[in-house]
Structures are given as structure tokens and as C-alpha cells.
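HK97 family phage prohead protease: structure, please.
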Amino acid sequence: MEFKDFDIKAAEMKLDADKRLFTGYASTFGNTDSYGDTILPGAYKSVIAGGQMPVMFYGHDWSSIPIGKWLTMQEDEKGLRVTGQLTRGSAKADEVLAALKDGSVSGLSIGFSIDKGDYEEKTDSAYGRTIKNISRLYEISVVALPADNFARVTEVRAEDIAGIKTIRELEDFLRDSGRFSRSAAQGLIARCKTLFKAQRDAEAEEKAAQELLMRLKNFEQSL
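Here you go.
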């Protein structure tokens, strides 16, 4: 599960307060975000063709009641353009509407996942992916902090961890599920190796000391 945020205010956000409607871009094409990722045009075609609209939350709060619903979702030359309507009678939706009118809240963030075949690793930079397809678009949230570096992991499944067999697979897992950059993932792996080696060395030294002590006791008893 990954998040990517975008400032709808900077993307020609339109607001109709009377009808509680707002329109903006949940994602844009061709840009490189702070993780080095670039989403290509056409990446949302499969989720749009699926016909199921994502859920609307505020701040990715999946434990709360949705604050509204997304009415339209389409790709154009700029990105994924969406129109949403905030729920009448919802206190949280009223707060979000007031914040949108004031301009103090101006971000949209997608909650999505991709499969192995949906992207390619960039070869012209230290890290990052070229994303060709979004497999699942779970939700689009209104957010107060539209910055890519606020993306967070929401769930790590036990079966995903259990399936890791090699250091390379662990690096891929940290980058894909944990949203670590390639350099950060490699740095963490290197540190883990150092710690594990130190732990093994310490355990080996303790075991050797115990064996030596036992031999000394046996030698003393034989005198």
C-alpha cells in the first residue's frame, strides 16, 4: 500500500461550495517525485475501466466514515482529474469544505498498490521507478500536507515478510512496501548485516569462553 500526494490548489482546483463539489488532480504524469518515481500517462486506465470509484477520506483515516464520494475520474494530458462531492450533514465534511474554501487545505493523496509488472526500475538514477500501471486505487483522500515525503506505509502483511528469502528480496520489499529509497534500503540492509555479524561474533565468543571454562574445570578435576 502506497500513498502519493499532490497539491490540488496548484493544479487549478475548482470549488463549488453551494453544491459541495470540487475538482482537481489526484495525480499528475511525467513528474519525478521525492522517491524518484514517475507515473506515465495511461497508468490509471485499468482502474477507470474497472468502474469502481475509490473511497473519499480525510487524511487516509480508514477507520472513519467517508467524508464524501468521488463522482468522476478520468485521465487527460496532465494527469488523473477527479470530481468529488462532500457529504451534507457530516461535521468532518463541513470542516473540510470550510478549509478548502479558505485554502488552508489543498491536497489530494491517492492510496494505491502496484504489482511487479506495473513498473520498471530507473537505470539513469540512483533510485526510483517508472510506473506504467496502477493495479488498485483504493482511495483518494483530501490532505492538509500535500508533499510526497509524507507518504507512509499503512499495512505490512505477515505473509509478505515470510516470503522474503534473499537480501535482494528484502531490499525490494523495503522499497516497494516500506517506500524506502534504493539507497536507504541498501543502507539499512548493510547496517543489519553489521549488527547480525556482531551478534554472531559475540555469541561465538561467549560459547568459546564457556567451552574453555568447562575444559579448565575438567582438567582441574583430573589432577
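Notes: The chain is about 35% helix and 25% strand.
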